[in-house]
Specification:
Helix content of chain B: 25-40%
Distance between the termini of chain A: 87 Å
Shape of chain B: globular
Radius of gyration of chain B: 19 Å
Shape of chain A: globular
Strand content of chain A: 5-15%
Strand content of chain B: 15-25%
CATH topology of the largest domain in chain A: Rossmann fold
Strand order of the largest sheet of chain B: 3-2-4-5-7-6-12
Helix content of chain A: 25-40%
CATH class of the largest domain in chain A: Alpha Beta
Strand order of the largest sheet of chain A: 1-7-8-4-3-2
Largest sheet of chain B: 7 strands, mixed
Oligomer: heterodimer
CATH class of the largest domain in chain B: Alpha Beta
Largest interface: A-B, 51 and 50 residues
Structural class of chain A: alpha/beta
Chain lengths: ~375, ~325
């Protein structure tokens, strides 16, 4: 009864195509048409410039707290650009660039962060779930969507996003396990941005990579330079094609960095050094992709200005949105309003119409309180 | 009309809804080949195959989470949590997502999903296999919380829950599974969710109960009629949330007295909301303080002490008599 080796050794690949100095591995360079390359850059730049604008809007009190994406543009755009509109995108809460790519209007996202749930409402035919905040809880939803797509015989693929912190949550592991057992068309995309608020990756997991967590569930796992849009795109294209071909789920770990704060309520100088941030700024995904496009003569003059104008127009549309009608909150609790919500809605409606009335003139008698008729038999 | 017990009646509801609608799926631990630990899903796997009757891995959060994804896609998953005591491992999916998706997406999505769970005591079971936790679900806006009391309404309410556009938490009392048989029509029958039933009319006192406690309320009403000459009206709640306040208030406005019986612990339980609703709607008709007969506010004490914890006939009668004598 000797002790034997049950499995061959597993391996986890790391993929990098365009390094931070702009050096290209020509053998791995994905075949992306020039117009698409320009679109990718536009998507990344829009994500970056909107992020900067949103921080200003937040500081001015025009929107509330949100999670900035600066530094993660390549991970997001490289990944979602491999999806078709009929495929599904399942975001967490730091995928603004990816959501813009998927067709969310800028003003809608601004509304969401200004407290209007209308901003989180996907368009009728849009195959996107809204922002999900409780960490990792969206991952099983992606598995269910993928199961349903397969059950109906649709060839849709589902891509689910989460961060490095989420890989400590049970829902992450349950989702990978279910996806493996069910062999469903889903791509799990972890944006490993090194920090879960103040907790660095080394305190989050003792695994050398996040990608290797896939292996325990019988899925392929791949680590990618998440600041290299070409590498992310190539890796995701492969995973999406595998999923669509019926070859099951994949876990992709994008190694990237959150250059900004966790949310606008966070101060990262409390827990990480300026040197660390500067080192990652030198790996900026936009700089390196910009240089790559420059060499191909594909970088458009004035693109910064045109993206800023696009954002400015959307901010104007956002600011034209009227005050939120409180009564709408009673419309989306149930398909049909139950009696108690009908009554509560009427109470709010009455208060609103009272508030709309002119104030009583001084000397007017106060209105009497309502009194019921006593019917007790005691 | 065949006579069925609750298990067979629920099985019939699932079978007929699955025959009627290909979007209806069953998912959970041991629901497939084994037919469920209480046999509620028996034979469904043989009839509909493993794609529609899914033996899932053992993970409550992903059962409900994947169910949410299926429902968002347009399917109608009927998820089984093997015992309600284990649902805390998926409570976040129920509260964070089942109940909120309609609001979060402003009705672009909804979650037409049923979460079945066996609940309740009196079956000499281990810890986590005997509790009544309906109040947790009744507290959550966006959910519906249903508890049938017998074979016929169990079948009709499960059909209604499957067809409901919103998520329904459906509790099945373990002690009722085999408690008795009732005529259940072959043709599909449904009942409105959110509507209580007056199952016995009376003028002196209203007894409000649901699930396994309904039988106690009925027995108490019989005894009161026989021994005290008092006519108790008995309400079977059937849906805990949304609560049918109209039926409750109309009854208490007539009788002037109310006793609420439930197996969940007393504090912050359904009885508190029912009592407050009576105060809102029938205060001036009340002849006596509203009484609650419930389990005590202790964690499950082990089945050797269960009888002292869960309401019994003597406690219901004592509360009713105290109320009548006030």
């Amino acid at each position: 009864m000797p002790r034997t080796v049950l499995e061959p050794r597993f391996q986890v690949e790391y993929l990098s195509i365009l390094d931070s100095d702009g050096n290209l591995d020509g053998a791995l360079e994905p075949d992306i048409p020039p117009a698409e390359l320009k679109r990718l850059y536009h998507g990344m730049l829009l994500g970056r410039r909107l992020d900067e604008r949103m921080i200003r809007l937040q500081r001015q009190g025009r929107i509330g707290t949100f999670a900035p994406i600066k530094g993660q543009e390549a991970s997001q755009i490289g990944a979602v650009s491999t999806l078709r509109p009929v495929d599904w995108m399942v975001p967490s809460f730091r995928e603004t660039a990816a959501m813009l790519w998927r067709g969310w209007p800028i003003e809608k996202l601004l509304m969401l962060y200004a407290g209007y749930l209308e901003g989180g409402q996907p368009a009728p035919e849009q195959h996107d779930l809204p922002v999900t905040i409780p960490v990792a809880t969206q991952m099983p939803h992606a598995v269910g969507l993928a199961y349903a797509a397969q059950y109906r015989g649709d060839d849709a693929v589902v891509m689910a996003f989460c961060g490095d912190g989420a890989t400590s949550e049970g829902d992450f592991h349950e989702a990978l396990n279910f996806a493996g057992v069910w062999h469903v068309p889903v791509v799990f995309l972890v944006q490993n941005n090194q920090w879960a608020i103040s907790i660095p990756l080394k305190k989050q997991t003792h695994s050398r990579t996040i990608a290797q967590k896939a292996l325990a569930y019988g899925l392929p796992g791949l680590q990618v330079d998440g600041n290299d849009v070409l590498a992310v795109h190539a890796a995701c294209r492969e995973a999406v094609e595998r999923a669509r071909a019926g070859d099951g789920p994949t876990l992709i770990e994008c190694v990237t960095y959150r250059l900004g704060m966790h949310t606008t309520a966070d101060d990262p100088t409390k827990y990480r050094s300026a040197e660390e941030v500067e080192a990652w700024e030198r790996k900026d995904p936009l700089t390196r992709f910009g240089a790559y496009l420059q060499k191909k003569n594909l970088l458009e003059d004035g693109i910064n200005e045109s993206v800023d104008a696009e954002i400015a127009a959307a901010v104007q549309r956002f600011e034209a949105v009227g005050a939120a009608d409180p009564l709408v909150m009673f419309d989306h609790a149930y398909g049909e309003r139950p009696a108690h919500l009908e009554a509560q809605r009427a109470e709010v409606a009455a208060r609103l119409s009272d508030a709309g009335r002119p104030a009583p003139a001084p000397g007017d008698p106060p209105s009497p309180p309502m009194r019921g008729q006593r019917t007790s038999r005691r | 009309m065949p006579k069925l017990n609750v298990v067979k009646a629920l099985n019939l509801a699932l079978l007929q809804e699955m025959e009627r609608d290909e979007d209806v799926l069953v998912m959970g631990e041991d629901v497939g080949v084994d037919g469920g630990v209480f046999r509620v899903t028996e034979d469904l796997h043989r009839k509909f195959g493993s794609k529609r009757v899914i033996d899932s891995p053992l993970a409550e959060a992903a059962i409900i989470g994947a169910g949410v994804g299926m429902a968002l896609y347009g399917l109608k998953p009927v998820c089984e949590i093997q015992f309600s005591g284990f649902a805390f491992q998926c409570f976040h999916q129920i509260e964070n997502h089942c109940a909120r998706y309609r609001m979060r997406s402003q009705s672009r999505f909804h979650v037409p999903m049923v979460i079945r769970m066996p609940y309740g005591g009196g079956v000499r079971a281990l810890e986590h296999h005997s509790e009544s936790e309906e109040q947790f679900y009744a507290h959550i806006p966006g959910l519906k919380m249903v508890i049938p009391s017998g074979p016929r309404n169990a079948r009709a309410l499960l059909v209604a829950a499957i067809r409901d556009p919103d998520p329904v938490v459906f509790f099945e009392h373990k002690a009722l599974y085999h408690a008795g048989r009732e005529e259940v029509p072959d043709e599909i029958e449904t009942m409105p969710i959110g509507r209580a039933q007056v199952v016995r009319e009376g003028r002196d006192l209203t007894l409000i109960a649901y699930g396994a406690m309904l039988r106690l309320a009925r027995e108490a009403a019989d005894t009161l009629a026989e021994e005290d000459g008092a006519q108790a009206e008995v309400i079977d709640l059937l849906t805990i949330s949304p609560l049918d306040r109209e039926t409750i208030v109309a009854s208490v406005a007539k009788t002037g007295r109310a006793v609420i019986v439930h197996e969940a612990p007393r504090s912050f339980g359904p009885g508190a909301e029912i009592a407050a609703s009576i105060m809102d709607g029938a205060f001036l008709s009340l002849e006596a303080p509203i009484k609650r007969v419930t389990s005590w506010d202790v964690p499950f004490p082990g089945f050797a002490r269960e009888k002292a914890n869960v309401p019994d006939l003597a406690r219901v009668l004592a509360a009713a008599r105290e109320t009548l004598a006030f």
